[in-house]
Structures are given as C-alpha cells and as structure tokens.
C-alpha cells in the first residue's frame, strides 16, 4: 500500500512550512497573506502528489465540516432543482459543500433527513419546511443550530427565512386578469396549511373581493402527493363542468398538470380560458399559447439564504426575515 501523502510532503516539495501549506489548502491564503504564486505551487503540488485531506481530523480541528444541509420538497421539481443549484453555487464561493435531500412534503421523511444531516455534522441548515414539522424545526432552534427557512416559513417559530411575497404575487395576477376583462376567475391550489399556499389563496380571495367579484370565488384544492397524471385527471374533470373564464395555478407542478388537462380537453387558450401559472418551466413553451406566469426571484432567494446562514454560523444570532417581490411574466395565455 502506498504511503499516505502528508502536508509535510507537500511542504518539502514546494520548499515552504507545513503551516503555509495548511493555510492554502484550508482556503486561508489571503487571510494569512500567502503569495499568489506560492499558493498556486502548493495547490499544484497537492494535485501532483494526489493529496487527500483527512476530513474527520480537519473538522475536529476546525469545529466545522464546511457542509450545509439543504432540504427541499422535491429536487425533481424545476423550482427546487434550480434553487438547489443556486444555493450550491453560492455556498461553493465560500468553500462550503451542500448535501441535498427531498422531503416530498412528508414530515417523517423530513425528520429522517434532519437526523441524517445532524449525524453528518453539517454546520447549518437551509430548509423548505414540510407541513407538520414544527417540532423538528423547533428542536434545531433550541439546539442553536444555524438555520434558514426558504420558500415558506412557520409563523409560530422565530427563525430566519427567505420567502416570496405570495399574497401580492397572486393579488397582482388576479388584477391582471381583471384588467384583461375576465370576471369568473378560479384558482387551483394544494390542499395543505403551509403559509406560502395560505398566502397565495388569501391573495386570490382578497383581490376578488376588492374587485367586487366575491361571488365568483372558486378554489379547487388538490392533494400534494398525487402523481401528475392524477392531478391532470382531477383538473380535467373540473374543466368539463367549468364556469370560470380564467384560472390561476398555485404552483409549478399544478401549472404543468393544468396545461396538459387543458390540452386534453381541447380548451382554446386564451379564447375560452385564460391561464396564469407559477414559476417558469421550459415545458410551458411547448403549448400553443405560452403560459403567463408568476416568476419568483430564485437567484436572490438562493443567495440571500446562504448569506444569512453564513452570518448565523459566524455567531450573528439576530433573525433576518426577507420577503421578496415576484414579477408577472405576461405571454399569450391571457390574451
């Protein structure tokens, strides 16, 4: 078996101290004022010698593993997939690795992921909390684990979060449809009590009331964990008895299922039915009338969540509450 390469081996090859090698390989060359050329020689030597750091020993010395645990609802969902990539790219800039997990909006799975990440000694969490996971999040808060909630928050708990202004996003979508001449505006949402969904529904209702359309309020709620084909079937059945002339879909997945249902039922968009979805999706462009949708500021949300988490990991205990504005991307589906 070949001898494991040490810091001393690299130091001998480059002609510097082991301390200087340690500074460079731990990303501290600027802080310790190691020259750019020397730092490059050290990194090149480490690669040539196939140096592999002892991560366990390193984390024990530093009291840190330089890892972040990210838990989202479903990383296969384009919204969460893009968000995860943004968080990962931002974390890498600060020498952190991100470990991912999907809760599937399942409280039991969420708890298992949190336990796994805690055992992996992650330095902090970014979590899109599932319904019913208040006690899990509260346990992290009580243990003073650095934590940022993203996409949705838990009103009962005092912790940092980065979310969309969901109320205004949907309120403005209703207003846009009203300005286009629509009055019988319905909404398709998920059947859960999470704050982001509640706020989207509240934005819809308040806008309808403010436009004197309270008698036209119609909300179809669908269980989250249904496959797309089942959601498509439910929306399709709704379309056969539809008295609305416009629909707002409350999520990306519902938007996609809704578009397929509309196509299957041969509804003409926007002549017979105007549509507004949530979040962009490349698939939206393949339908006859490209979908108008509510665009969330993913880049800013991802970067801000990492920034706040890094602040907390440095000892900043003041919670930060960030609520961001959306943008309505208007296309052919509203006329």
Automatic annotation (TrEMBL):
Q: Check the record and name the CDD domains matching this protein.
A: HTH_LacI, PBP1_EndR-like
The cross-references to InterPro entries, in alphabetical order and at most eight, read:
HTH_LacI (IPR000843), LacI/GalR-like_sensor (IPR046335), Lambda_DNA-bd_dom_sf (IPR010982), Peripla_BP_I (IPR028082)
Which residue ranges does the record assign to the HTH lacI-type domain? 5-62
List the EC numbers from the record: 3.1.26.5
Q: Does the keyword field hold Zinc? A: no
Write out the entry's keywords from A to Z.
DNA-binding, Hydrolase, Transcription, Transcription regulation
Instruction: State one Pfam family annotation.
Output: Peripla_BP_3
Which GO MF terms are attached to this record?
Answer: DNA-binding transcription factor activity; ribonuclease P activity; transcription cis-regulatory region binding
What SUPFAM superfamilies does the record point to?
A: lambda repressor-like DNA-binding domains, Periplasmic binding protein-like I
The family database entries (Gene3D superfamilies) matched by this protein are listed as: 3.40.50.2300, lambda repressor-like DNA-binding domains
Could you confirm whether the keyword tRNA processing appears in this record? no
Could you tell me what this protein is called? LacI family transcription regulator
- Native source species: Sunxiuqinia dokdonensis
